[in-house]
Task: structure prediction
Amino acid sequence: HMADQGTDSEEREKTFMFASREGRYLKYLNRALEMIDNKTYGKCSDCEQFIQKKRLELVTTARLCISCKLKEEQRRLNK
Result:
């Protein structure tokens, strides 16, 4: 039935989206672990200032401080 096919297709799309998101998170997590090993974890990779502790508590894989993250988002939006 067509409705069942649509449901199956939607479920496949959701499964792909979740797998893709998990893959990206794993990449970010591995990068954070490398930064810990290199003793650079907690420092912004753009301005080299320390990232606020609260941000690291909320986004443990953060590589940018809030200011640099906002600048990155603005550049992305202006493309």
